[in-house]
């Protein structure tokens, strides 16, 4: 039956990512994917070890897609312009792909991604934006954590429909990114 469904690790990963965007990463199961392909659950186990592997693969796929969006957004930019482009690409990806984005937040076992540079690339892109602000360690790590937690918090609340104020979320987003730029420019040395 699996041969008729054309199962491959790549197709399973893509289908899981699409399913995650529709129903949430927590509802991606082997049974749900088997239904998508019209096969029995057992058909998957010749391609992947378990559900954890599928979710890890979705997390890595999503991280790679997000990295590509971020890299494209910041190319040739620096300072406030790069920070705003980075922030907008982050938010756009998270809102357009909620299940994939949620997968990027899953705790992963380092052994699961030891042979890929995708997570290191996300750090490199963040630090590329931060270069303009000339921060050294540990301030660089602290500032990068501020950006990640601010962006993640905002998009998580926005995606859940948590902003119930007449002011548009996009207007607040612009003010937040402008405020982050000012904060980073004046970061304590």
TrEMBL record:
Entry keyword Cytoplasm: no
Superkingdom of the source species: Bacteria
Gene3D superfamilies: Homeodomain-like, Tetracycline Repressor, domain 2
Residues making up the signal peptide according to the UniProt record: none
Pfam families, sorted: TetR_C_33, TetR_N
Alphabetic keyword roster: DNA-binding, Transcription, Transcription regulation
The entry's DNA-binding region: 29-48
Transmembrane portions of the chain: none
Residue ranges of domain HTH tetR-type in the record: 6-66
Protein name: TetR/AcrR family transcriptional regulator
